[in-house]
Amino acid sequence: INVDYYNNPEQDKFFIKRYGDIVTFKFDSKADVIFSSHALQCIFPRSRQAEAIKHWSENLKSGGKLILVVPDAQYQINKYRKGSMTWQDLIDSNFGWDANGMRNFSMYNKEYLRDFIVASSNKLVSCKLNDDYLKSIGIPDFPESDIITIHERI
Fold first, then answer.
1. Which of 15, 41, 154, 56 is closest to 107 using CA atoms?
2. Radius of gyration over every alpha carbon of the chain, rounded to an integer in angstroms
3. Is pLDDT at 104 greater than 70 in this prediction?
4. How high is the pLDDT of residue 27?
5. How far apart are CA 153 and CA 124, in angstroms?
6. Widest pairwise Cα distance in the chain
């Protein structure tokens, strides 16, 4: 799946060009790992985010890992409160654009994301984040402004 973001200078908005539907993508076989970085918050409405998580969990092998990276809204709100992030930057990093060019809410904190994932699929349980594991499968370090969560298929 490839998702590209591009800027429409005439409207000063970012739009999404999709090369596949990450909610219904047909997997050839069950996966050991499904990794999603900054894509979940771009799926609208929220009910489709739950569909994506359920679909991904159903396409993991038993013991397989779902690794998600999303912006950490709490971190960014704290930066805004301290004056080190503008209101516009806060909005741009936490409210995505849908296919019709409309803003949509997409904020997460660690607890909400964990609970949302587990509620979306009865096949996933939270795992302890292990940096060595992430490095061993080629997942790069992410800034502290991101939430990284790992769930295991049971």
1. 41
2. 16
3. no
4. 83
5. 5
6. 48
